[in-house]
Design brief:
Largest sheet: 3 strands, antiparallel
Bound molecules: acetyl coenzyme *A
Number of helices: 18
Distance between the termini: 54 Å
Structural class: mainly alpha
Order of helices and strands: EEEHEEEHHHHHHHHHHHHHHHHH
Length: 434
Amino acid sequence: MTGAPIGSVTVTMDGTDKSASLPLLAGTIGPSVFDIRKLYTDLDLFTYDPGYGGTAACESRITYIDGDEGVLLHRGYPIDQLAEQSTFLEVAHLLLNGELPDKEELAEFERGVMLHTMVHEQLRQFYNGFRRDAHPMAVICGVVGALSAFYHDSLDVTNADHRRISAFRLIAKLPTIAAWAYKYSIGQPFMYPRNDLGYAENFLYMMNAVPAEPYHVNPVLARAMDRILILHADHEQNASTSTVRLAGSTGANPFACIAAGIASLWGPAHGGANEAVLKMLAEIGHKDHIPDFIARVKDKNSGVRLMGFGHRVYKNYDPRAKIMERTCHEVLDELGIKDDPLLELALELERIALHDDYFISKKLYPNVDFYSGIILKAMGIPTSMFTVLFAVARTVGWISQWKEMMEDPLQRIGRPRQVYTGHAQRDFVVLQAR
Ligand code: ACO
């Protein structure tokens, strides 16, 4: 049984004497749910919820969001405390194993992850199969999917050791795979990982270093990158995480599941939004054009949205956006970027939107992606890599959610139903008679 039973909800079908009593279950915090699993057998009814806005698809102990209050907790810890006081690998340990590690546990975990940063040498060949101008999301989607062809020794999803090693491999190899996708696109040699560096440091090193020159990772930028990774690490049952769970529910191996998650993350309504924000700011171009742009956003027929604003769950300020804004200022200060025109434009756009009735009435606030693009651009990371970075971070959440699902005794294949509105049965008509 999921959750704690606290009562029942009775569903009665109007105009009939049919009814069903459905168990009401409470989580630790947040709305209760009623368990509809017997609705079909008892009443011959399905529920209809396109987009799953009112559906809990699983029980989870990993992440809690209160969208009205703007709260995000990982294993109970508020995101701002984690972002300020911990490191990405500490958060990875927390998400994956349920608790913050002590000193020895952290050292062992860091070593466990960093030992897997190299990828099979044969995998390098995959990059040559891509056009140089391929989007790096296309490249990482393919290369991550291909991992399952290389690590046969950790593909048994029923084996806890295999699940643990696969998790380490994915968390460790994603930065290498991502950095190489970038290096390939600019025609520079791939840099092998350096395990003497921290996780974020090593990622920046592989992205920016070249064999011909010594490269020193700026600690302020490494800290900012680590924080960006923390802020993107997990976010409950979002589209890509649900994709990973759905793929995993069939017993598919974790590398294939994470590749599916990457595909799902790519869309502009999800992880692609940080890239879309920068494109939008470039298109607006100047503060004076903001009112025109806002008018287009408000025009239903224009199809234009204010990217980086709005969220399915948050109907308040996304708590990650606030930390992102602070980090943005830190990074620009460190880099000596004064009066960054993009930041100024973003701040003005935010100010105007937050005072506009359209956005107020629809509870549209900045989300995590509103500022992340500006920071990443200032750090010299190309726009096409923004969503890739998100994927590197979210791999931790995906694999934690996948592991939780695989260890859930109630786990079974995900298989939604539908309201069928097509033709009823009809007879085939031969071609000559049509
Ligand atoms: N700009 C303008 N109007 C918006 C926006 C926006 N960014 N977001 C929502 N709305 C409006 C819709 O037009 C709709 O208006 P209506 O009720 O008059 O029809 C209403 O607000 C509700 O919008 P939905 O699309 O139904 O909300 P949903 O929960 O399905 O969408 C989403 C959430 C996809 C994030 C949406 O807000 C959006 O497209 N935002 C821009 C893209 C973005 O920033 N995505 C990143 C999300 S965070 C993440 O993945 C890390």
